[in-house]
Design brief:
This protein is of the alpha+beta class. The protein is built from 4 helices and 8 strands; from the N terminus they run αβββαβαββββα. The chain has a 4-stranded antiparallel β-sheet, covered by helices on one side. It has a two-stranded antiparallel sheet with strand order 1-4. The termini are far apart.
Length: 202
């Protein structure tokens, strides 16, 4: 099993390296054409991957940190300095309103997400967001749901199992505190609110 796991990790690393090489080819071409300094480049991911953490592999279910903490890298050389890091939480749905603001395009009605860009078209030192929400469906249409708020995370899987985690004290997500903390109800209410808002936009 140890050798098999190493092989899986090596294959995954190889896929990442391949993608990196293709991005490099594109950026070098843009550089040679003189376009790169005025080009907005975005590198993002839709999910992470598990390699045995908590006895699980892949990315098909659940919202553990290995799966939901993904990169969001933006480059626009003529507009931003290199090496800036934005603190705080962001959701994938924040990307569209942020891009619209960067390109000075009005938001269409009903757009989801919160722009990460300030009124001057710059990224502030922190996102200002302390909450996040996510959902996925399995083949039978049952939902996995999760929400984070102020360092706490609540997950509800397709079987109705509920897990409450204190990410600050328990970053490896080992101890389920569901029903044992006052945050339980607060996170359940927030999760219900975000889920209802999402359904209303469909």
């Amino acid at each position: 099993q140890g050798k098999g796991l190493k092989n899986e990790i090596a294959r995954y690393d190889g896929a990442i390296r391949f993608v990196d090489d293709q991005i490099e080819r594109i950026l070098e071409k843009f550089q040679n054409l003189g376009w790169l300094k005025d080009t907005l480049v975005i590198v993002a991911a839709d999910h992470g991957e598990k390699f045995g953490e908590k006895g699980e592999f892949g990315h098909g279910a659940g919202f553990w940190e290995e799966l939901v903490r993904v990169p969001l890298i933006l480059s626009w050389p003529s507009r931003w300095n290199r090496g800036q890091t934005i603190q705080g939480t962001a959701e994938q749905v924040d990307l569209l309103p942020s891009l619209l603001d960067l390109l000075m395009i009005p938001h269409p009605p009903g757009i989801q997400g919160k722009s990460l860009v300030d009124s001057k078209g710059q990224f502030p030192p922190a996102t200002g967001r302390t909450t996040s929400f996510g959902e996925s469906e399995n083949e039978s249409g049952k939902q996995n749901l999760y929400a984070t708020k102020d360092g706490w995370k609540l997950m509800i899987d397709t079987n109705g199992t509920k897990t409450l985690l204190n990410l600050r004290d328990d970053p490896n997500e080992r101890t389920n505190l569901y029903g044992l903390q006052p945050k339980t109800r607060e996170l359940e209410n927030y999760l219900r609110q975000r889920s209802t808002e999402l359904q209303n936009t469909r």
